[in-house]
Amino acid sequence: MSISSSAATGTASNTSLTILIGRVLLAVIFLLSGFGKLTAISGTAAYFGAMGLPVPTATAVIVGLIELLGGLAVLLGFQTRIAAWVLAIFTIATALVAHTGWADQNQMIHFLKNVAITGGFLLLASSGAGAYSIDAKRG
Questions:
Q1: CA 42 to CA 33: how far, in whole Å?
Q2: Looking at per-residue confidence, does 54 or 1 come out higher?
Q3: Vertex 29 angle, CA 104 and 118, to 5°
Q4: In whole angstroms, what is the distance from residue 42 CA to residue 60 CA?
Q5: DSSP string covering 58-118, please?
Q6: Contacts of 87 by beta carbon, 8 Å cutoff, 6+ apart
Q7: H-helix or E-strand containing 42?
Q8: Rounded to the nearest 5°, which phi and psi values hold at 17?
Q9: Cα separation, 84 vs 73, whole angstroms
Q10: Nearest alpha-carbon partner for 122 in 76, 75, 90, 78
Q11: pLDDT > 60? residue 3
């Protein structure tokens, strides 16, 4: 039995819409977090310094830029597979650096949240940005 071209097009359209919604949902947390870090560098640097991270001000700027620019790339669907890989690695690294105090239930929740977000980025890296993206427009 064959699928009509209109049904196949509808399925592709629904898939692209679902990917777009997923991209928006993944991007929001990184856009907000990156913007927050970059607009409060001194506070972010103090927090990173208290965690023992090296060169806290530079680390705050780098982390803020990764989050903001990576979130923007995912949102727009620009170089999506690369951005998704970068954010997947970044997110799992963040979980392992900042959220391993699993005796604290809040830290365990943050760790598992990061693991789940990493899974979303790996799916996005595998599937690509879908039709509603800069990547699709560029070919």
A1: 15
A2: 54
A3: 70
A4: 9
A5: HHHHHHHHHHHHHHHHHHHTSSHHHHHHHHHHHHHHHHHHH---TTSHHHHHHHHHHHHHH
A6: 26, 30, 66, 70, 71, 74, 121
A7: helix 41-50
A8: -65, -40
A9: 9
A10: 90
A11: no
